[in-house]
Write a structure and sequence with these properties.
The chain folds into 2 domains: about 5-180, Rossmann fold (3-Layer(aba) Sandwich), CATH 3.40.50; about 190-405, CoaB-like (Rossmann fold, 3-Layer(aba) Sandwich). Helix content is about 35%, strand content about 25%. It has helices spanning about 20-30, 50-55, 75, 90-100, 105-110, 130, 135-145, 170-180, 215-225, 255-265, 310-320, 335-345, 385-400, and strands spanning about 5-10, 35-40, 85-90, 120-125, 150, 155, 165, 190-195, 200-205, 205-210, 230-235, 250, 270-275, 280-285, 305, 325-330, 350-355, 365-370, 375-380. α1 (about 20-30) links the parallel β1 and β2. The chain is elongated. It starts with 6 loop residues before the first strand and ends in a 6-residue tail after the last helix. The chain binds cytidine-5'-monophosphate.
């Protein structure tokens, strides 16, 4: 539960995207947050306060002059023990109000009266022309300068029938953004390249050799790096997973394709993390046509060694010292001894070892970090928790290097 114990003020302003706020409210509660909903009068035309009250489990406020508030200080009281304010959807007009410090309803007054330590996040939702209007863009720029974070908007089909930027992010994406906002920004401004998943080595157009890697660890590492503020490129073999929000995914199949995609993007990266379970061999006599099953002939496959992607990236670091290379290793025995040896052999500063292959597809894991100084055990936890710890360990180590640009 990523938001356990957090108090979130969820503000709704007028817009069709209010329907997504219901789902968002549910997801926040599911993640352990206590949600205090405040709606503008316009928002109540799109979704009922009763719905939001039932989903949040708390009284919903819509009016600055609400007689239920004894001291008439809702605009102060509602934010004093809050951990974040999220306005979703945030209309064009509400965005304008925020940019100018207007206080003409409960929600806008509450935003202006918030303690300075309290983060304000907004999820714009509006027609593409309204979003692209220079006045709106001026207000957005002002809000950014004031330290307000802007979640989205996405591009796509809009309720008005037009297409373009202005769609509010989906509830799950907003949840990810909010969770990310609470994470330390240890990789702010850094670029991180990650491989994940299995590879698929074709035998013919319909058959191939792969492995049991689910991609979960690599995707968790990509998400954690993005949460830490990095710009993330994820080169992924075939998996059933959705790309983490805000991560650029490049899909590949074979080890050779993974190598080519990695080498095409490695320039300028600060960190490379090879999490993929890359096939060691490929079939050199793969057939261009589907192989026929015949009674007397069993196909004879010939194999060749695949290129070691991690080693290839590590070799490029000799010039600049970057990217900082991190490898993964699954061993079935003697992890401590084999891990240390493998790190040296691969010529990388950090190797993450786990006892595999039983970790494949699991949601949790236990890993050991090997570096020049020795090894550190990260106790069993879910893969996202481990990934966040790993990112923090990587950030600490690269901070110690003076070469960063
Ligand atoms: O040598 P081994 O395959 O155990 O090393 C695993 C590490 O090397 C992982 O980080 C994996 O992503 C990387 N690797 C690679 N290219 C290969 C084989 C492994 O990048 N062909």
């Amino acid at each position: 539960m990523d938001l356990q114990g957090k108090k979130i003020v969820l503000g709704l302003t007028g817009g069709v995207a209010c329907y997504k706020a219901a789902e968002l409210c549910r997801s926040l509660v599911k993640q352990g947050a206590s949600v205090q909903v405040v709606m503008t009068e316009a928002a109540t035309h799109f979704i009922g306060a009763v719905t939001m009250q039932a989903l949040s489990g708390h009284t919903v406020y819509t009016d600055q002059w609400d007689p239920r508030v004894d001291n008439n200080m809702a605009h102060i009281d509602l934010t004093r023990d809050a951990d974040a304010i999220l306005i979703a959807p945030c209309s064009t007009d509400f965005l304008r109000k925020l940019a100018h410090g207007a206080c003409d309803d409960l929600l806008s007054t509450l935003c202006v009266a918030r303690p300075r330590r309290l983060p304000l996040h907004i999820a714009p939702a509006m027609n593409v022309e309204m979003w692209e209007n220079p006045a709106t863009q001026r207000n957005v720029a002002q809000l950014r300068q004031d330290g307000v974070s802007i979640f989205g908007p996405a591009a796509g089909a809009q309720a008005c029938g037009e297409t373009g930027f202005g769609r509010m992010l989906e509830a799950e994406e907003l949840l990810d953004e909010l969770v990310a906002a609470f994470q330390p920004k240890s990789l702010a401004g850094k670029r991180v390249l990650i491989t994940a998943g299995p590879t698929f080595e074709p035998i013919d157009p319909v058959r191939g050799i792969t492995n049991l890697s689910s991609g979960k660890m690599g995707y968790a590492v990509a998400r954690a790096a993005r949460e830490a503020g990095a710009e993330v490129v994820l080169v992924s073999g075939p998996t059933a997973l959705a790309a983490p929000h805000g991560v650029r995914r490049i899909d590949v199949q074979s080890a050779q394709q993974m190598h080519d995609a990695v080498m095409a993007h490695v320039h300028g990266q600060h960190v490379f993390i090879g999490v993929a379970a890359v096939a060691d061999w490929r079939v050199v006599n793969a057939s261009a046509q589907k192989m026929k099953k015949t009674a007397d002939a069993i196909p004879q496959l010939e194999f060749a060694q695949n290129v070691d992607i991690l080693a290839a990236v590590a070799a490029t670091t000799s010039l600049s010292g970057w990217p900082y290379c991190v490898g993964f290793a699954a061993e079935s025995e003697n992890l401590i001894e084999f891990g240390a040896v493998k790190r040296e052999r691969k010529g990388i500063p950090l190797l993450v070892g786990n006892i595999g292959p039983q970790t494949f597809g699991q949601d949790d894991n236990s890993v050991i970090l090997f570096d020049e100084a020795g090894h550190t055990v990260l106790p069993r936890a879910d893969k996202l928790t481990l990934a966040r710890q790993l990112i923090s360990e990587i950030a600490k180590r690269i901070d110690e290097r003076s070469l960063l640009t």
